[in-house]
Fold this protein.
Amino acid sequence: MNDTKNALTFISNFHIPRWEELPAIDLYMDQVISFTNSTVGNFFDKTGMAPLTKSMVNNYVKAKIIDPPVNKKYSRLSVAMVLVVYILKSFYSTEEIRKLIDIGLSLPNNSVTYNRFCDAVEKAVTAVFSGSIHIEDIGEEGRERRYLVDNFALSFACKIYVQYIINR
């Protein structure tokens, strides 16, 4: 029970800035890095993910995952794309992320698509950390290990589903 309470406390601070919360002005690289690390970096740091760096952003631009800066500044859409890539980079290859971004950009409204992505990620994280996926907190011995295995299997299934859809 205490592990579940600690997990819920941990995720209670998880928030991906919505479109309206993204800077309304174009940002220089250092500002993009600072914004990203100050909004979601602390949460991801506690999970073992590396903070966003300039070289990471440069690699995303070179791979044509995010739009290049204009006059060394990144637009609101580019900042949103950086956040999406930062979230996905631990789980998907550069090519898979590019395909997912392209799918998102093909939809008619970037702000709505981005906000839906944020909602979906936050809901999924909350569901997994709260224990509402697969098994409830029934106080059985070894529950944490069983839950870990269940979520490993779930993450595998979700990843291969996404790969199947984007590669068909």
